[in-house]
UniProtKB/TrEMBL annotation:
It holds the Pfam family CbiA. It comes from the Bacteria. This is ParA family protein. It comes from Belnapia arida. InterPro entries: CobQ/CobB/MinD/ParA_Nub-bd_dom, DNA_Partitioning_ATPase, P-loop_NTPase. Residues 6-178 form the CobQ/CobB/MinD/ParA nucleotide binding domain.
Length: 214
């Protein structure tokens, strides 16, 4: 049965879709069968998959409204996939019951957060919700400047919430944005700056999910 990775947070613009597509690419390049599910009404992840070059490793995609996700669980579990990566809309306001059910189903939830006071303030209660739901979850710092004071302050602020922090960060890099426009991941961009960031993030996720490359 596929392992479920859910990318979710309370605040838009935190890097959920960027995280989902680049982790999907990392998994696909290891020979894993990857199914992504876009539950965000904007469907940015689904549009990115549609732009992927024919020669790129296959990443299957479905766009499913969060309100309808439970009706598709058995079918998605029965698919020939090793990992299901779900990109979610921010917050729980539109479909709170369905969102919480999805979070409970997850084998791991990543909570992308930028190193800003606004992001940390919104991410803290989201992590508290995940703790109450007894869901394995980690913050993933995103769009950071390594060595900056803001990064150190963000790490401290997130740890003070009581949540767990992934041991890798994703830098704020132009190549990550460029690759998205081409329908690829940064590791598929020749000489892409940011490749090691997502390789590290995927290695962490894979270990948390108990998965192995093929």
């Amino acid at each position: 049965m596929a392992r479920w990775l859910v990318i979710s947070t309370a605040k838009g613009g935190s890097g959920k879709t960027t995280t989902a597509r680049n982790l999907a690419v990392a998994a696909a390049h290891e020979g894993l069968r990857v199914q992504v599910v876009d539950t965000d009404a904007q469907q940015a992840l689904a549009r990115w998959v549609a732009r992927r070059p024919e020669q790129a490793p296959l990443i299957a995609c479905e766009a499913i409204a969060i309100a309808e996700i439970e009706a598709h669980w058995d079918r998605l579990d029965a698919m020939n996939a090793d990992v299901v990566i779900v990109d979610t809309p921010p917050g729980v306001e539109s479909s709170p019951g369905q969102m919480q059910a999805l979070l409970r189903k997850a084998d791991l939830v990543l909570v992308p957060v930028q190193p800003s006071d606004d992001d940390i303030e919104s991410a803290a209660p989201w992590m508290a919700l995940l703790v109450r739901l007894d869901v394995p979850a980690h913050f993933l710092l995103n769009r950071v400047r390594r060595g900056s004071k803001s990064l150190d302050e963000a790490k401290l602020g997130l740890l003070e919430t009581g949540g767990r922090l992934a041991p890798v960060e994703i830098r704020d890099l132009e190549d990550i944005r460029r690759s998205a426009r081409a329908g690829i991941g940064v590791m598929e961009l020749r000489g892409g700056n940011g490749t090691d960031d997502f390789r590290g993030a995927w290695a962490f996720v894979k270990a948390e999910l108990g998965m192995h490359a093929k």
